[in-house]
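Protocol step 4 of 6.
Sequence for Cobalt-zinc-cadmium efflux system protein (Micromonospora nigra) entered exactly as in the expression construct, tag removed. Do not edit the line below.
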Amino acid sequence: MGAGHDHHHGAVANAAHRHAGRLWAAFALLATLMVVEAVAALQTGSLALLSDAGHMFTDVLGIGMALAAVAATRRAAADPQRTFGLYRLEVLAALANAVLLSGVAVYVLVEAVRRFGDPVEVPAGPMLVVAVLGLLANVVAFALLRPGAKESINLRGAYLEVLGDLLGSLGVIAAALLIAVTDWWWADPLVAVGIGLFILPRTWRLGRAAVRILVQAAPEHLQVTAVHDRLAAVPGVAEVHDLHVWTLTSGMEVASAHLTMAPDAEVGAVLTAARTALREDFRIEHATLQIEPGASPGACGTVEW
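Step 5 output, structure tokens:
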């Protein structure tokens, strides 16, 4: 087994856990604003505000799932039966976020098309005030989540939700101003279409990244043939086979391989050189390498799958 497994295992856990405070702050802020928007929508009868509150609910739900995944990962770390903890919960939460966002975007597009035929008269004053509050809250939440979005697919999902809602708030402000000045009610569905078309491609990319991890495909930034050739070039390695490279969770690539040694090779030197190559050339810290003597045919059993 590759050296440094325990160190990297803890490093990945800390990368997720150290952003929990930012997640909690964003969760509290957006949950409060969601309630404000919902109350304002009920009082004014504004469908636009009610839709925005629904979008905000997906933000709150998504961040809540991210927090739950972080907490579950921490609790599972001490369970000897979960040898990789519960890191995949992070990926599942990201996939759920992508599905939720896609649902909201499709709903917005369908509702916008309906409104083109039957424009809804939205009270511009309350709509503008609450949209400005939403913009400010989303700017703060955006700043809180941005650092973690570079390290964790789970936090990236929450970050994209807030980014979408931030743009939504800008759109609602623009629509409210147009309605207040010109009584042009079609501004609302036009803005809605723009927001929906902006959100969908980003959520599909997030969902695709999560699915790639769940089906254990090789990371997109790594070429398996390059990993194979690099291991084959290690002094003392005669052949490389049964090579697998996959992602356990964000920032944690894993590899396993069988290395057939040359007759005069030394096991310790081959293992050290192979682990160093994987770590330095491909940033693969966790590798399980099986060494097989070249003089023992059949040492590696046939794997049916």
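Step 6, annotate. The chain has two domains: 5-214, 224-293.
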